[in-house]
């Protein structure tokens, strides 16, 4: 029994150290990736459900690593744990602003770009300054940038969050609340925040049309947002049925595979150009 126990401990330690070493290696590689431009940004189109036009894109990071495209789920948690998320987030915002500006300069009809911001970035006291610097470096009109934050980031210290968010909106950019419905925000608290848009989490969209509870929740969120004067965007829309239900329930915009997957810049431009010609 004793030996088994010791063996178990040894195995466990060995296992831990492999995982720990792998983590150190990944962290190093990710840091180099940011410096060496191995991170690429894809853009997922968003549609206005009233006009039927493309109204924006969301910037989503990917990592070109050892011959494959690594998805954010595989490295964002590590980046958040190690603090690399701040450099990564600035990189993505810089790329996205420059890209959108370049499309505008090339004559593409202007649209917004949504960029994800993580909690660590939001807490960084120099954050607003950095966003301002990125905007002016890209020579981008701030109205085309929307920063996406999540409920958990702003609900613990409401007063401080309102102050930070107001700093950002004072730059002329807009703010969206991402993954809405998955947290525990009281609807009344939402009124306190300078938010332009709620992004309805895809988990509710998935349940349309089979799950009556999901549909009831989605409808309730949509009508509440309307009363508060906040726009709504549904995420993860995968079929016509979902799009029609959401549109009829008053949803303003949609994003999802039914419209398009996240695309590399050249394909996004092609998509938008062809789509607007239809
Ligand atoms: P998110 O912000 O909720 O982004 C939406 C995710 O849903 C994206 O996954 C997108 O590809 C996926 N998606 C879009 N339409 C559909 C659909 O119709 N069906 C399904 N099943 N999925 C759909 P992705 O690109 O893998 O990104 C995952 C998460 O990684 C993002 O979730 C975001 O939280 C994070 N992330 C991505 N880029 C960045 C970044 O630059 N900074 C930070 N902090 N986080 C990022
Ligand atoms: Ca997002
Ligand atoms: Ca989301
Ligand atoms: Ca999400």
Automatic annotation (TrEMBL):
Which stretches are annotated as coiled coil? Answer: none
The superkingdom listed in its UniProt entry is Bacteria
Q: Which residues form the EAL domain?
A: 23-276
Give the signal peptide as a residue range, or say none if absent. Answer: none
**Protein known as:** GGDEF domain-containing protein
Which organism is the protein's source?
Metarhizobium album
Lineage, broadest ranks: Bacteria, Pseudomonadati, Pseudomonadota, Alphaproteobacteria, Hyphomicrobiales
> Which part of the full protein is shown?
453 to 730 of 733
